[in-house]
Design brief:
The complex is a heterodimer of chains A (170) and B (106). Chain A has 170 residues and is mostly helical. Chain A contains 6 helices and no strands. The chains are: A mainly alpha (170), B mainly alpha (106). Chain A: It catalyses: a quinone + NADH + 5 H(+)(in) = a quinol + NAD(+) + 4 H(+)(out).
Chain lengths: 170, 106
């Protein structure tokens, strides 16, 4: 594990970008602006994955999340939103209760992660991550790989049918 | 604490904060699409955790990275189906406000 000053600086800079953009996603009142900040958050997360030695996952993060998911959500907003866009992302009446629940979750998980003694190893992650992932996905984890492919197919068909609105033949 | 090193704990605290922001959004937003976006934030917090465990606990086995790939797959499928459901509901109800979805209320 390389703990040079640049890795530490990159971690804290990317963490700041991630947290601020995630807060903007939640607190902005226009949902299109929320989705734009969501893309910023995803790209910063890809940078954070690079600091975790997961370069393939970083590329997938940019392609799938920043590329596909954000664009799909923007298209969904275009298909359904009408009227004043400035009031499309408001809070409901249970915001106080939600803040309490979230504070409880944060305290408990922060305490547990700080108090647990992690048994780590100092071995570095191998550099050729893509080759290792490919070998594992097509040998040891081939069944989950195929099930994930089936899941994507079923989700594709289901999304088309749900959005197309099957008319009852009467 | 001031030794300026980034270990597993820092990544877990960042992941917990991101998960908390996403959970707050899920519980407190009116717009159904905003809830979907906040679920994506929570899934990304899980991905940070998986990759941090992969780097600091089992660096040579790549279990965390493979789990993260499956999480990304499921998240993409979930966004597609979720948006289709929201569009279908909007067609019937002409609204995406979650407080107005009360067909199941007895």
């Amino acid at each position: 594990m390389d703990n040079s000053i640049w890795m530490v600086a990159a971690f804290y800079l990317l963490s700041a970008v991630i947290i601020v953009s995630a807060l903007l996603v939640v607190f902005l009142k226009n949902i299109v602006h929320s989705v734009l900040w969501l893309a910023v958050c995803f790209i910063a997360l890809a940078g954070l994955f690079l600091t975790l030695d997961a370069d393939f996952l970083a590329a997938v993060q940019v392609l799938v999340y920043a590329g596909a998911v954000c664009i799909m959500v923007v298209f969904g907003i275009m298909l359904i939103q009408r009227g004043d866009m400035g009031k499309t992302n408001l809070f409901n009446s249970q915001t106080g209760v939600a803040a309490g629940v979230v504070a409880l979750v944060l305290v408990v998980s922060g305490y547990l992660s700080a108090a647990t003694h992690w048994v780590g190893t100092a071995a570095p992650v191998p550099h050729k991550t893509v080759e290792h992932i490919a070998t594992l996905l097509l040998s040891k984890y081939v069944i989950p790989f195929e099930v994930a492919a089936l899941l994507l197919l079923v989700a594709l068909v289901g999304a088309i049918i749900l959005a197309k609105e099957v008319k009852a033949k009467c | 604490m001031l030794t300026l090193s980034v270990g597993l704990t820092q990544y877990m605290v960042l992941s917990a904060i991101l998960f908390g922001i996403g959970l707050f959004g899920v519980l407190s937003k009116k717009n159904a699409i905003a809830v979907l976006i906040c679920i994506e934030l929570m899934l990304n917090a899980v991905n940070i955790n998986l990759l941090a465990f992969n780097k600091f606990v089992t660096p040579t086995q790549f279990i965390g990275q493979i789990f993260a790939i499956f999480v990304i797959t499921v998240a993409a499928a979930e966004v597609g189906v979720g948006l289709a459901i929201i569009i279908a509901i909007y067609r019937n109800k002409l609204s995406v406000n979650l407080d107005e979805f009360d067909w199941l209320k007895w």
